[in-house]
């Protein structure tokens, strides 16, 4: 692993190393986002790809006058889980949720493309920014060049890290900060394998320019180093002071972390010197609007909902359908957004252990579970039988179940008699038993697993259920020491990452220990394909192969609600403007304090 080579204070090279996790990106349809050449023309003929500018201009809709001040108190999309780490190099999936308002990224979701403005996107996807919905954040513009293939990113000037006593003096963000961040991430022993391997080097030819030279094209380039889960840019001073200590956190974002109580709350104060603004009604407004963001970590669901009912929490980002229905009945003034969960639910079976090395066993367990009945009875119809590993929102990549081969349709049909026959053929006429680990933090899994166990017991298969605290549960998978059965929700992320991270050999998020050299080769080919329509067909074909091999008991994907009080303004249920990152959304919300008071809260 080579460290950066400093040629001058503003000329830095990161040799022979790659960059952070990206999603599948389609070729940009306009020159503002990506050269059309990347969509498959033989030459990488190089149109300038100019990013969105600093002013975030909301489309012409019925608009209210923004208000400054107040506190936005929110229960995040993971209301029971406190911050897992403050060190970026831990490569933890939840990092952006806690630090995404402190540390900014090169790119972010263009929220003007949201459905509430007449756009196509809900911005609920956990790691999916479509090609035409990406804007520059720290990047002011970007341009593709060839021979060699490289991306030249121009950083915004005048973006400041605030003064942080004991950590650093206020100073401008520069290109070396980008290089330092990505180099430190790449050197981490916890990094996702192969994440940056498509990058030859990163250079800083001047103070505000970063050049990424590619070994080969990767369809996830923008996700991996631009706006994904591990893409936040931090200063060297914070790393040297100790990133694990939340008190040292200091970024260019709209908020600053001012308090953290493990298992209880995160508190963020507005950054008074934040650079960005939004244009509303023809007038520019400096961001952010609220003075403070308060996260509430509440493990008990009824306690959390009571806090919302009484106005102590303004926004519930993720609510089960059954609870949402009760809350909405109790107060019809509450605003809501219903969306298909961006985390697929499944019971993974370790294919490197018996009896799950036999596809007949894996298919049998799928046939033994009545998934349609789970949709009807357990979810009250508020679920989709076929919503993972691809998500219906992935236009062009998602293939409905009715279009799938019969062998795949069979896995979603209830057929216990055939399940028993397959188990007998595999040498288990009397069934078997195995341990299933799950997180006690998930009320849904706590309730759903006994139902799955009851179905399997009808074909002679018994489950030993083992609830675990989240840290231990996650560690089991990442260290590959988890049980033969592993019940989890896993983020779809985006059309290519959903395949790579869960089914490529040796990947961290691969609880079934799936290992198929031919599938590995096909996933690599997908990532290297520049022509998006062709890439979409390749994704569909590989998705079929993986589903048919039944590494999981495929379970329905539930619908989720986001709820908020009407005093939460400039909001329509958006959750993420990057990889699990709400920071840009929070920065644009304001609180109608007079309305809140009028409603008695």
Total count of helical runs of at least 4 residues? 17
Strand content: 15-25%
CATH topology of the largest domain: Dipeptide-binding Protein, domain 1
- End-to-end span in angstroms? 56 Å
CATH 4th-level superfamily of the largest domain: Dipeptide-binding Protein, Domain 1
CATH top-level class of the largest domain:
Alpha Beta
Q: At CATH's second level, what is the architecture of the largest domain?
A: Alpha-Beta Complex
Give the structure's gist in a few sentences.
This protein has 601 residues and is an alpha+beta fold.
Give a verbal description of the structure.
The chain is α+β, with helices and mostly antiparallel strands. It has 2 domains: 5-294 and 565-593, Alpha-Beta Complex (Dipeptide-binding Protein, domain 1); 343-558, Dipeptide-binding Protein, Domain 3 (Dipeptide-binding Protein, domain 3, Roll). The chain is built from 17 helices and 29 strands. Helix 7 (359-367) runs antiparallel to helix 10 and helix 14 (517-528) packs antiparallel against helix 15. The longest helix has 17 residues, at 532-548. Mean pLDDT is 89; it is low at 1-60.
Outline the fold blueprint.
Layout: E1 5-8, E2 11-15, E3 48-49, E4 55-57, E5 71-75, H1 95-99, E6 107-109, E7 134-136, E8 139-145, E9 150-155, E10 160-161, E11 171-172, H2 175-187, E12 199-206, E13 209-214, H3 221-227, H4 236-241, E14 255-261, E15 265-270, E16 277-280, E17 283-286, E18 292-296, H5 301-309, E19 315-320, H6 321-330, E20 335-340, E21 343-349, H7 359-367, H8 371-378, E22 383-384, H9 406-411, H10 416-425, E23 432-439, H11 443-457, E24 461-468, H12 470-478, E25 485-491, H13 497-503, H14 517-528, H15 532-548, E26 552-554, E27 557-564, E28 568-569, H16 583-588, E29 590-591, H17 593-598
Parallel strand pairs: 4-16, 5-18, 5-19, 23-24, 23-25
Antiparallel strand pairs: 1-2, 2-12, 3-8, 6-7, 8-9, 9-13, 10-11, 12-13, 14-15, 15-18, 16-17, 19-27, 20-27, 21-25, 21-26, 22-27, 28-29
Helix pairs in contact: 7-10, 14-15
């Amino acid at each position: 692993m080579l460290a950066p080579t400093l040629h001058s204070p503003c000329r830095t090279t990161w040799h022979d190393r790659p960059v952070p996790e990206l999603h599948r990106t389609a070729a940009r349809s306009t020159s503002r986002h990506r050269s059309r050449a990347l969509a498959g023309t033989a030459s990488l003929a190089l149109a300038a790809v100019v990013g969105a500018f600093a002013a975030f201009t909301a489309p012409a809709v019925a608009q209210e006058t923004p208000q400054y001040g107040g506190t936005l108190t929110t229960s995040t999309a993971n209301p029971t889980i406190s911050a897992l780490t403050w060190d970026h190099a831990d490569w933890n999936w939840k990092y952006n949720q806690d630090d995404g308002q402190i540390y900014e990224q090169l790119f972010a979701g263009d929220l003007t493309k949201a459905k509430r403005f007449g756009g196509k996107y809900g911005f609920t996807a956990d790691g999916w920014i479509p090609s035409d919905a990406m804007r520059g954040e720290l990047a002011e513009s970007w341009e593709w060049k060839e021979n060699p293939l490289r991306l030249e990113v121009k950083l915004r000037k005048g973006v400041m890290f605030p003064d942080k006593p004991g950590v650093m003096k206020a100073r401008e963000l520069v290109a070396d900060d980008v290089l330092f961040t990505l180099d430190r991430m790449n050197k981490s022993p916890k990094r996702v394998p192969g994440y940056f391997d498509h990058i030859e080097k990163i250079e800083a030819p001047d103070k505000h320019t970063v050049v990424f030279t590619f070994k080969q094209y990767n369809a996830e380039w923008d996700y991996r180093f631009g706006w994904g889960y591990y893409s936040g840019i931090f200063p060297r001073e914070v790393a040297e002071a100790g990133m694990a200590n939340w008190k040292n956190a200091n970024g260019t974002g709209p908020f600053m972390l001012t308090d953290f109580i493990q298992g209880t709350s995160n508190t963020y104060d507005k950054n008074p010197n934040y650079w960005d603004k939004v244009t509303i009604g023809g007038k520019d407004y400096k961001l952010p609007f609220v003075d403070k963001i308060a996260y509430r970590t509440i493990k008990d669901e009824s306690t959390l909902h009571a806090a919302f009912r009484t106005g102590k929490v303004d926004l519930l980002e993720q609510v089960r359908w059954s609870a949402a229905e009760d809350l909405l009945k109790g107060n019809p003034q509450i605003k809501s957004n219903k969306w298909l969960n961006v985390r697929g639910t499944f019971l993974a079976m370790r294919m490197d252990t018996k009896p799950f090395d036999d596809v007949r066993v894996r298919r049998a367990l799928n046939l033994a579970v009545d998934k349609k009945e789970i949709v009807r009875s357990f979810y009250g119809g508020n679920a989709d039988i076929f919503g993972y590993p691809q998500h219906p929102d992935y236009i062009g990549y998602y293939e409905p179940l009715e279009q799938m081969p019969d062998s795949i349709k069979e896995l979603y049909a209830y057929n216990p008699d055939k399940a028993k026959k397959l188990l007998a053929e595999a040498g288990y006429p009397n069934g078997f038993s195995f341990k299933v680990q799950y997180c006690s933090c998930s009320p849904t899994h706590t309730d759903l697993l006994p139902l799955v166990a009851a179905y399997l017991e009808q074909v002679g298969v018994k489950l030993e259920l083992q609830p675990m605290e989240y840290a231990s549960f996650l560690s089991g998978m990442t260290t590959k020491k988890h049980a033969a059965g592993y019940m989890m929700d896993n983020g779809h992320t985006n059309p290519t990452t959903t395949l790579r991270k869960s089914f490529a050999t040796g990947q961290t998020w691969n609880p079934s220990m799936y290992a198929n050299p031919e599938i590995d080769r096909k996933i690599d080919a997908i990532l290297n394909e520049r022509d998006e329509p062709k890439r979409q067909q390749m994704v569909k074909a590989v998705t079929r192969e993986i589903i048919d091999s039944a590494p999981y008991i495929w379970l329905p994907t539930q619908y989720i609600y986001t709820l908020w009080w009407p005093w939460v303004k400039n909001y329509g249920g958006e959750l993420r403007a990057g990889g699990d990152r709400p920071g840009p959304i929070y920065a644009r919300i304001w609180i109608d304090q007079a309305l809140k008071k009028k409603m008695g809260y």
